[in-house]
């Protein structure tokens, strides 16, 4: 042992020196190990566009099943069937008003879906339901041949709607015929409740003309 390794207090300092050296080496090795493991250090990780895209929520649009599509089409067809029945009832009511026999029907109260469909078929609601004359002379002209509520004119409008809804499908045409018959029957019931009598002859003639046109259409 050299004298230089002994301190003034008689303690061997070379041992401490060796211990300190070993600790320094161990600490350095530990830091190196932690760095390699990513411990105790801030590591920058570059964000990729794919990561951002994948983390963004995208709602998945549900595809309708064949049954759901069929149900929607049937519902639309039912709404159109109800429309033609109401159209007949309201139009026959207008005929009767022009005769001075009101049943109290209010045609102005219609949902937007109805007015949109009438506009699509006829061009406007006014073309589907021509305004009523306000004078006795005008009313007589309206229900006479060539008038807006004559047998021919009303039959024209009813068939225009029926063909627009049914198209060229024979089954749908028959269904429209059934709905038209129901519409006239309902108009007859409404008129009977209001007046205690049967439909006027002009309304009966209109029904006969419409059925004749259905016969011709279905024969084709």
Question: Would you kindly provide a written description of the structure presented here, covering whatever features stand out?
Answer:
The chain has 2 domains: 28 residues; 154 residues, no CATH class. Helices cover 68% and strands 0% of the residues. It contains 9 helices and no strands. The termini are far apart.
Give the topology.
Blueprint: H1 13-37, H2 49-55, H3 66-98, H4 112-122, H5 125-128, H6 136-143, H7 151-166, H8 170-195, H9 201-219
Helix pairs in contact: 3-7, 3-8, 7-8, 7-9, 8-9
Question: How would you concisely characterize the structure shown here?
Answer:
This is DUF5610 domain-containing protein. 68% of the residues lie in helices and 0% in strands.
Q: Which blocks of ≥5 consecutive residues have pLDDT under 50? A: 1-20, 32-42
Q: Tally the structural domains.
A: 2
Count of helical stretches: 9
> Sheet with the most strands?
none
Sheet-strand content, in percent, reads under 5%
**Order of SSEs, N→C?**
HHHHHHHHH
Mean pLDDT: 77
> How many DSSP E strands?
0
By secondary-structure content and strand pairing, the structural class works out as mainly alpha
Structure keywords:
220 residues; globular; 9 helices; mainly alpha; disordered N terminus
């Amino acid at each position: 042992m050299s004298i230089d390794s002994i301190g003034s207090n008689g303690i061997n300092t070379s041992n401490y020196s060796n211990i300190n050296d070993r600790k320094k080496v161990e600490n350095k090795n530990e830091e190196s190990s932690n760095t390699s493991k990513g411990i105790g250090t801030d590591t920058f990780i570059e964000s990729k566009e794919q990561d951002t895209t994948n983390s963004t929520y995208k709602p998945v649009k549900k595809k309708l099943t064949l049954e759901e599509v069929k149900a929607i089409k049937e519902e639309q067809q039912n709404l159109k069937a109800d429309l033609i029945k109401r159209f007949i009832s309201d139009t026959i009511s207008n005929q009767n008003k022009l005769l001075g026999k009101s049943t109290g029907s209010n045609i102005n109260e219609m949902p937007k879906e109805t007015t949109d469909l009438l506009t699509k078929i006829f061009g406007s609601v006014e073309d589907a339901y021509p305004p009523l004359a306000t004078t006795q002379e005008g009313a007589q002209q309206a229900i006479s041949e060539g008038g807006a509520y004559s047998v021919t004119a009303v039959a024209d409008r009813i068939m225009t709607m029926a063909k627009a809804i049914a198209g060229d499908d024979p089954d749908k045409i028959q269904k429209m015929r059934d709905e038209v018959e129901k519409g006239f029957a309902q108009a007859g019931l409404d008129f009977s409740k209001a007046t205690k009598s049967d439909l006027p002859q002009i309304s009966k003639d209109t029904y006969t003309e419409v059925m004749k046109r259905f016969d011709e259409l279905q024969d084709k």
